[in-house]
Design brief:
Elements lengths: L5 E8 L10 H16 L8 E4 L15 H7 L6 E4 L8 H11 L5 E9 H6 L27 H16 L3 H15 L13 H6 L2 E3 L2 E2 L8 E10 L11 E10 L12 H8 L12 E3 L5 H10 L8 H5 L18 H4 L6 H12 L13 E7 L3 E8 L2
Parallel strand pairs: 2-3, 2-4, 9-10
Antiparallel strand pairs: 1-7, 1-8, 4-7, 5-6, 8-11, 10-11
Helix pairs in contact: 6-9, 8-9
Length: about 375
């Protein structure tokens, strides 16, 4: 029996900045108001909340707002809510919401992701760094080896592509260069300056083969998506976008034992839940916390073969706005800011509605893929305008 449909109806986004002074709760409320206005709903219509990973103080500013903060601030009475880190990456919160509305546990669910890392680092007196007495969780696999940043373990996989498949830095550069080009057309983007190949190749290395421009940067912002049940669309006044399929996977946290990251099984699994194929996708919004992660998604989703992503994006023509697979059209996290996964679903809706303005891709796009994570955790959404 086919499951009832779930749709993304409202979308909202707060100010995007670095070291903002506006409180993260207020940024979240800004994004919620915009999403409600976009959908034509009121807070009284909302009966569910979903977020990733829930409120946490570690690391500072990573997730300062939880579901209870929103329920209390807006005096909400909800039937269903969830906020946890043990789900399939950031957009897993959207999958959870879609499952809830399909099961009849809610009609309209606010999904949000709020980050405040830049401000928290600038104001340690307000957001103190906790120092645990022992290492546990994911950190136990990386900290003993001085791998303090995700760039260290992502670089290991990237170097594997260099050695096995001949990935070139000039090819990898196209992710960052294209992101910057697209960000220049996005009035909300954090970085709106062109990046040249010369600048990229001359940048300092962070973790070989990843340089400074292969990394996103800490950002302060909130992004909101409203997920609605198919039988509740009469409540909304916007163009709904259907969640046609979703897929997720988890790899091993002890990353040095894994050949391929979770983007590969997640990407392959997406097509098992739909009649659509990679050739039907009009735009791809793929996680770029580090540029190499985007390459793994291109391969995992079947847009090219394993080891072929470097050649696939070489020159940048394929992934440009007028290319065969416009990529990260809002600038991605490298250009628009580290919205930690939610920006990709937000932009997918913008493009499928034809609301991209100067960055709108040509024609009438009907199918988009949005992906978050890709390392030990990964989620992919197939979104359609039916």
């Amino acid at each position: 029996m086919a499951l009832p449909d779930a749709f993304i109806t409202g979308i909202g986004m707060s100010q995007i900045g670095v070291r903002l002074t506006r409180h993260p709760l207020l940024l979240t409320l800004d994004a919620i108001r915009e999403a409600l206005d976009d959908a034509g709903l009121t807070i009284a219509d909302i009966d569910g909340i979903s977020t990733y990973p829930g409120r946490t103080s570690m690391p500072p500013g990573f997730s300062p707002i939880g579901t209870d903060d929103i329920m209390d601030s807006l005096r909400m009475k909800v039937r269903w809510y969830v906020g946890a880190s043990e789900v399939s990456s950031q957009l897993g919160a959207v999958v959870e919401a879609a499952n809830a509305v399909r099961a009849g546990q809610a009609r309209h669910v606010i999904c949000f992701r709020t980050v405040y890392e830049a401000a928290a680092m600038a104001r340690p007196q307000e957001f103190p760094q906790a120092r645990p007495g022992r290492l546990d969780g994911f950190s136990q696999w990386i900290m003993p080896f001085n791998a303090y940043s995700a760039s260290n373990w992502v670089a290991q996989y990237a170097m594997r592509h260099v050695k096995l498949y001949g990935l070139k830095r000039e090819q990898l550069a196209q992710i960052a260069i294209t992101a910057r080009k697209h960000a220049m057309l996005n009035p909300r983007a954090l970085v709106r300056e062109e990046l040249t190949m010369e600048q990229y190749m001359g940048a300092r290395m962070i973790s070989d083969p990843l340089c400074l421009y292969d990394c996103d940067r800490f950002t302060d912002a909130s992004t909101v998506l409203i997920v609605s049940a198919g039988d509740a669309l009469g409540d909304v006044k916007c163009t709904p976008v259907r969640i046609a399929a979703a897929s997720h996977a988890s790899g091993r946290s002890s990353w040095d034992q894994t050949e391929f990251m979770a983007a590969y099984p997640t990407g392959a699994g997406l097509w098992k839940h739909t009649d659509y194929k990679p050739k039907d996708v009009d735009t791809a919004q793929l996680y770029d916390g580090f540029s190499f992660l985007t390459l793994t998604w291109l391969e995992g989703l079947g847009f090219c073969g394993v080891g072929e992503a470097g050649a696939f994006i070489e020159g940048g023509q394929r992934i440009a706005l007028d290319g065969e697979l416009p990529l990260n059209t809002f600038g991605g996290q490298i250009g628009a800011g580290r919205l930690h996964g939610f920006g990709f679903a937000h932009e997918s809706v913008v493009q499928l509605r034809g609301q991209g303005g100067t960055r709108q891709i040509p024609g009438e796009p009907r199918v988009a893929v949005a992906a978050s994570g890709g390392g030990p955790l990964a989620t992919a959404l197939l979104l359609t305008r039916d």
